[in-house]
Design a protein that fits this description.
With 384 residues, this protein is mostly helical. It folds into two domains: 282 residues, Fic-like fold (Orthogonal Bundle); 70 residues, Winged helix-like DNA-binding domain superfamily/Winged helix DNA-binding domain (Arc Repressor Mutant, subunit A, Orthogonal Bundle). 56% of the residues lie in helices and 5% in strands. The chain is built from 14 helices and six strands. The strands form three sheets. It has a two-stranded antiparallel sheet with strand order 1-2. Strands 3-4 form a two-stranded antiparallel ribbon. Strands 5-6 form a two-stranded antiparallel ribbon. A hairpin with a 6-residue loop joins strand 3 and strand 4. Helix 3 crosses helix 4.
């Protein structure tokens, strides 16, 4: 069995024009062990903070968070490849396949169903081995019509021909990457899957970073390798947390950093098998995804605490609507005219609503006063 080396990257001479899969010691990746270990510690800490925070909210809010995150994962992973999915259809499909009750479910396209099926199989069944047959099922789910754009492709089996990643106009193409020959794919994937499924002391966050890079380097399918590669990373991240509940979306963060993602993948494909830079970026991107989820969680918790603090106070529907807008991140200052516009009422009614909330110690009038009077929520209502 080929083993990935641990410790410091070795100083070797490599042909900078060769792809890493052409090197004699492929796929013996190496990296700076101490630098990567230092990065793993804070990411693991953030993971724990997020999991603990999510446990502190009610079941319904956790369920809605999982639904939102899985929807983002499906939509953004496809968007990275230039495919735009209908988010409402994705949400409906996720809800149906997870057995969640959703009112007014949208009609769902078969292609959307397929992408959702792949992501859910990866994240909900992380404790099952990753096999060739399972990857073939994922590929069939992605390409149910046997078409990728205008090109008919082979689905549910390894590619039969060469694969190039190119850009530019016809006749002026630039080749960014050439995958291993089709004859090598079966053997390469056998080694890859054996490594994925073996249990060892490697941190699973590190394994997720390496697995994504290794898989897209082999590029075993005619199309869909990026999405399946990210699903494999999600599979290992779920395994690292021993949980099928997704509270953050790595694909959403990768979409934000898409240019750097592709540039670093291309850069890593040539030179040496020292993949320190790739792992550093992957872990930093993962930490940013978790941090984004933590910030969203703070909003959710603040909102829950606010409504709990004023649960015994009588409010009308206009007041509840505007307060929810404020809690969700209202831009600018709240004025009587803005209240009237949001609540669809007269300015006199808006003023009475505001005065009532001031009396109930929910709103406070800001210091500037005069014709530019504005109002803010009393923040102590959101404190733990």
């Amino acid at each position: 069995m080929r083993r990935i080396s641990l410790g410091f990257a070795e100083n070797k001479c490599y042909n900078q024009d060769m792809y890493i899969h052409e090197l004699a010691d492929w796929p013996y990746f190496s990296w700076n062990h101490y630098r990567i270990t230092e990065l793993l510690v804070p990411v693991r800490h953030q993971q724990g903070r997020l999991t603990g925070g999510m446990e502190s909210i009610g079941f319904h809010l956790r369920e809605q968070t999982v639904l939102q995150v899985l929807t983002q994962d499906v939509v953004k992973s496809s968007e990275i490849e230039g495919e735009i999915l209908d988010a409402s259809q994705v949400r409906s499909s996720v809800a149906q396949q997870l057995g969640m009750e959703q009112a007014a479910l949208s009609p769902i396209d078969r292609n959307v169903e397929g992408v959702v099926k792949m992501i859910l199989d990866a994240t909900q069944h992380f404790d099952k081995p990753l096999t060739k047959e399972r990857l073939f099922d994922w590929h069939r789910a992605l390409f149910q019509e046997r078409w990728s754009g205008l090109k008919k492709i082979t689905i549910g089996e390894w590619r039969k021909g060469p694969v190039y990643v190119v850009s530019g106009q016809m006749g002026k193409e630039k080749i960014h990457f050439e995958a291993p020959s089709a004859a090598r794919v079966d053997g390469e994937m056998e080694s890859f899957l054996k490594w994925i499924n073996e249990e060892n002391s490697m941190d699973l966050l590190l394994k997720a970073a390496l697995a994504h890079l290794w898989f897209v380097t082999i590029h075993p399918f005619e199309d869909g390798n990026g999405r399946i590669g990210r699903a494999i990373a999600d599979f290992l991240l779920a395994r690292s947390e021993k949980s099928s509940r997704r509270f953050y979306s790595l694909s959403q963060q990768i979409q934000v950093e898409r240019k750097h993602y592709y540039a670093l993948l291309e850069q890593t494909q040539k030179g040496s098998l020292d993949v320190t830079a790739w792992i550093e970026w992957f872990l930093a991107c993962l930490e940013r995804a978790i941090q984004e989820a933590l910030e969203t969680l703070k909003v959710v918790l603040d909102k829950a605490r606010f409504w709990e603090a004023i649960a015994d106070l009588a409010l009308n529907e206009r007041q509840r609507k505007v307060l929810n807008r404020l809690l969700d991140g209202f831009e600018g200052k709240l004025t009587t005219s803005k209240w009237a516009k949001i609540a669809k009422c007269s300015q006199d009614t808006a003023h009475r609503d505001i005065v009532n909330l001031i009396e109930k110690k929910i709103l406070v009038k800001n210091a500037e006063g005069g014709r530019s009077s504005s109002y803010s929520l009393l923040t102590h209502l959101m404190q733990p």
